[in-house]
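Model the whole thing, not chain by chain.
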Amino acid sequence: MIISRRRATGLGAVAVALLAFGGTALAQESGSGLQAIKDRGMLVAGVKFDTPPFGFLDESNEPVGFDLDLVTKVAEKIGVPVEFTKVTSPTRIPLLVSGNVDLVAASMTHTIERDKAIDFSITYYTGGQALMVKSGSDIGSTGDLAGKTVAVQQGTTLEKNLAEAAPDAELLAFKDYNSAWLALVQGRADALTGSLNILQGFAKDNSDYVIVGEMFSTEPFGMGVKQGDSELRDLVNETLQELWRSGEYQTIYAKWFGEEPRAPIELWP
Amino acid sequence: MDYTFDWSPIWNNRDLIAEGLLITIALSLVALVFALVVGVLVGTVSASKSRIGRLVAGVFVECMRNVPLLIHMYFWYMALAFLRLPAFSCAVLGLTLYSSAYVAEVVRAGIGGVSRGQTQAAQATGLSPLKVRFLIVYPQALRNIAPSLASLSSQLIKDSSLASVIAVGELTYQAGAIEGQTFRTFEVYITIALLYLALVLCVSRGILALPGMRHAPRVAADA
Amino acid sequence: MPDVILKNLPFLMSGLGNTLLLAFIGIVGGTATGLILAILRHLRVPVLGRVALLYTEIVRGIPLLVMLFICYFALPALFGYRSGAFQASALGFVLFIAAYLAEEFRSGLRSIRTGLEQAGLATGLRPAQVFRLIILPQALRRSVPPVFSQYVRLLKFTSVASVIGVSELTGSALLVNAREFEPVIILTMTALTYLVICSILSFIGRVLYAQLQIRT
């Protein structure tokens, strides 16, 4: 090539400048925590879009649900508007770890394993894992699952619990509830496992499917914040307890679950 | 940069990764074979003299390659649900149909690149049309299109990662599973990125290392 | 049009809008980056030419889905910045398609005969002028067909952003399907939409190529 060395170096410099520019454009905000949320004027919360009644799209395709109502209250407490980001079970923890969302309220079970990666609020809802089958199926409980295919969500406690409750069942893990539910409807799976309330949400509109057996695990749901972000976690905990004391929690609960909460959430004196 | 690396979850889950890698290879291999068969057929028809044949082949190619592979995956998985095909077969079907359209275009260009004089000369020697095709046209075309086929093959391997959305237990799916248990996002995805890279390099270099394939002229085909 | 589509049309259209926006960002950003990479390699710029080669080889060896995961989860964790799903996928598409476009531009540059370069020099133009005024325009013109087929690929690839939670066309369609449960209708309509927009983009490429032909 006959182009001058000087010109070539100039081109190189342009490329470096462009890369550097791109770099600074990206590295805009590094701090997390409450102050960053206030500075930004926005709480970015990860919620599910496909898991009624916790987080789903309503008839006009707007995200709604139990988790979203609670998060909205948290944002009100901070005094900023809230922006909802769609998460799925496999993406919700990476999103917190990478710092892309401030808070995750996505029907997420508080586990010791997860607590090593992120921090959790107090339990705001206690679910249990259940099994749903097509009505008339010969599956009556987790004991009948040997050799059967069970649809589940990838990266959930549900996956592990089921493997323990029914070691001979074959697991079919999907990235979202919808695909797992679809697998049951289309006959690719013999059963679907999930949180009782979520399954009830599906069963309500589809009378061909029934929930069978006992609940075989307890699922304490907590909101997740970035590891070490205790300021935000404290604020979430306070908000939840204030909501209970004012009776707003009970109203929101009844709105989405059609019944009063059976036991109070953890309340600090 | 406040991230501490921990590669032990990768090593502890090496069985899962190996299993995923095997399924990725199996899925890619089966889909590649089918895609080549369908692609050569369609490509031959679209290089033929029959106007209707060219039209049909053209419509097939446009319909298959102008629909995203992800939609192919979901579509064949959900639309063929009544057959209760395993997810693996649906992924093979989606990958085959999508990739065969690209193979067909490459084959068409390859056949077009073999000069008419050669065919006529071969026919003049008394060879049957079928023999002309298999002894004269295809071998030359194959040599011409080898680089394009090599890049299509590596494309197909990478594309097979989308089978993870319909729960085929290939490499990307296993990465998701390990990530979901260990939360070591960065380590997991860097590992599988390197595995894909290695696989793709083996295949693309491997095909070109076959005798007679090296230094073959590249046929302009949009792969 | 089926009811389920009509009822959700505004939502699906906003998804289509996001698809087109993502493709646009990818095309503009990817073309600029790809061109720089190709020129760095073609001119054998010290160090950076090598870096460009390494970059294109690595990126072309990994699946897009993995690239998007890296952009959404790994890079923000590593460099401590925040990213929404949309920004992460836009970044991923630019980084991804740039590597492929760089290859196409480079083969365009390589296809220009040295005679042309010498002829240009003989007219008294400086080497840089020859490159900018003669070689580059010709190479770009020749690159139009393969570059546009990369653009079409990118347009299809935007669907993969749905996996990391972007509500582009595929993502919105899947969300609608989650509630309405009509996979065959919804997916067929989605496929047809892609078919139409991809065909339009290919058509633009062909028209552009025809327009750019040197008429004698």
